[in-house]
Amino acid sequence: xxxxxxxxxxxxxxxxxxxxxxxxxxxxxxxxxxxxxxxxxxxxxxxxxxxxxxxxxxxxxxxxxxxxxxxxxxxxxxxxxxxxxxxxxxxxxxxxxxxxxxxxxxxxxxxxxxxxxxxxxxxxxxxxxxxxxxxxxxxxxxxxxxxxxxxxxxxxxxxxxxxxxxxxxxxxxxxxxxxxxxxxxxxxxxxxxxxxxxxxxxxxxxxxxxxxxxxxxxxxxxxxxxxxxxxxxxxxxxxxxxxxxxxxxxxxxxxxxxxxxxxxxxxxxxxxxxxxxxxxxxxxxxxxxxxxxxxxxxxxxxxxxxxxxxxxxxxx
Length: 316
Hints:
The chain has helices spanning 12-26, 44-49, 61-72, 84-87, 92-101, 129-134, 147-159, 206-217, 236-245, 261-271, 293-299, 304-315; strands spanning 8-11, 30-34, 54-56, 77-83, 107-111, 140-142, 164-167, 172-174, 189-192, 197-201, 223-227, 230-232, 248-256, 278-283. The protein is α/β, with parallel strands linked by helices. Strand 13, helix 10 and strand 14 (278-283) form a beta-alpha-beta unit.
């Protein structure tokens, strides 16, 4: 594996907006519904180009979801956009009943997710969203790791007739390598192949997992990195395959260690059963520290150095 520095792309939210413009210009049934969030969602250019295809409901997240479900019931392809911390907490009942249980093809777009809001603190962090939505039937959950996955996920959501939750952070994203440049909801993407350490990560944690794999390769340790962009439905075959192949398995997520990607993977491996050294790296069950997203990642070991240390400990 080379240790070349990854090239940086746009923030996933900019890619989201650009893709929405492309889709909306070719389909006047595409709509964005926002809760005073067009600015933070980078949808200003979309609103300028397609002013008749955006609906603003104000800071009223429950209304956002209800209105979106109603529009979807009339045949519109609706993207309901709001900060993830509020979208998956304040309006959870509407997400459950109006969208998932009613089977309305609304794409719920959780922006500034995870700990993207940094120093604003725990009230604005969204480290519960995957756990909550995994417990609701009929909800696809996608957490893209880079601009490519974001673009393809938005296109897939627009073509879908099922509810879906897309989770986006705020920072500019690297262009990740991948074994095959293809995207399918429910099918994991292999970033690089190896046989000693398996990193299964999602969203903005895939990049530090890949950086850790590069550092470990300098020590003669071979790593496989999987972008598990879809948390539901989960790619069971990919998890089993990489766990059988590698000596240790480490999951990485910008989410609570409870109820997210790590516990979903652990449940699969225990039921197989596959017994390998296994570690969930995420946000522990404590009051989350304040700071920038990068500082929080460093504090909890969601970094190249932290993950390298975790891998070496498991291998020993």
